[in-house]
Specification:
0% strand
């Protein structure tokens, strides 16, 4: 975006308003951080993380097997 003839403070505010849509919200940033660096053994949430991860992967494995069998 290019703005001509506006006062500098107005331009700064408009650029700030336009840049809001350039990055994810705080929750999205937290989720990406957790995906990139999951809990490690010894941390409080590790057991729950392993349980949920195993459950999800097992479910995907079962569904993939059913799909292969159907074809």
């Amino acid at each position: 975006m290019q703005l001509e003839g506006f006062p500098d403070d107005v331009v700064a505010q408009l650029y700030k308003l336009a840049s809001i849509s350039l990055c994810s919200n705080v929750e999205g940033q937290l989720m990406m951080g957790l995906m990139c660096k999951p809990p490690v053994d010894g941390e409080a949430s590790f057991d729950l993380y392993q349980q949920e991860k195993t459950g999800l992967l097992d479910s995907l494995r079962r569904r993939a097997s059913m799909l292969v069998s159907a074809f």
